[in-house]
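queue> pop job 88
queue> type: inverse folding (structure -> sequence)
queue> payload:
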């Protein structure tokens, strides 16, 4: 089993589209007021971690950049395109109710969000998404903070925890917290 440096993973705070149950994928939606609160909660948790001067990375998507600006309290971070959320193709911009109505077979066959996004017509698909995440993880040389997205985090965390794709899709997907990943284990900081 491959080992990785210690990772502090932060999912971006709630966005306006999260609140509407609308699929973002690689489209943009700003943090909601609750999302800003989530990022501030992460900032409180990050203060002692940032004192260790870890490397910090963030997705190029606006919601992750906005979260990183708040949660990292001005600490420098590197933007890496491999940290972008899964491209959900034709489903991006649709509410979950719209997906259920317009793509009933895909909806019925994919009850978990990771599977739904990866089954999207015109989307990235699981294998490409997994390979992109693993490529980023393998590039890490030292303990690192990663600010990215829910499904991205489920796959990364699942790789570290040695989970199957189904196990990854069943992982929690919280906002306003930090997932600490080290030596094949996960601890949730709230």
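queue> result:
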């Amino acid at each position: 089993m491959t080992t990785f440096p210690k990772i502090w993973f932060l999912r971006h705070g709630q966005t306006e589209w999260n609140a509407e149950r609308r699929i973002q994928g690689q489209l943009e939606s700003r943090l909601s007021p609750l999302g800003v609160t989530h990022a501030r909660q992460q900032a409180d948790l990050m203060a002692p971690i940032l004192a260790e001067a870890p490397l910090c990375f963030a997705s190029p998507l606006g919601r992750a950049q906005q979260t990183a600006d708040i949660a990292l309290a001005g600490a420098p971070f590197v933007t890496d395109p491999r940290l972008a959320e899964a491209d959900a193709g034709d489903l991006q911009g649709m509410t979950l109710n719209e997906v259920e109505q317009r793509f009933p077979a895909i909806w019925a066959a994919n009850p978990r969000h990771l599977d739904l996004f990866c089954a999207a017509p015109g989307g990235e698909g699981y294998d490409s998404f997994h390979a992109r995440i693993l490529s980023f993880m393998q590039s890490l040389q030292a303990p690192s903070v990663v600010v990215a997205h829910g499904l991205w985090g489920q796959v990364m965390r699942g790789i570290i925890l040695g989970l199957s794709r189904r196990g990854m899709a069943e992982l929690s997907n919280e906002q306003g917290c930090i997932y600490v990943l080290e030596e094949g284990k996960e601890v949730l900081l709230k």
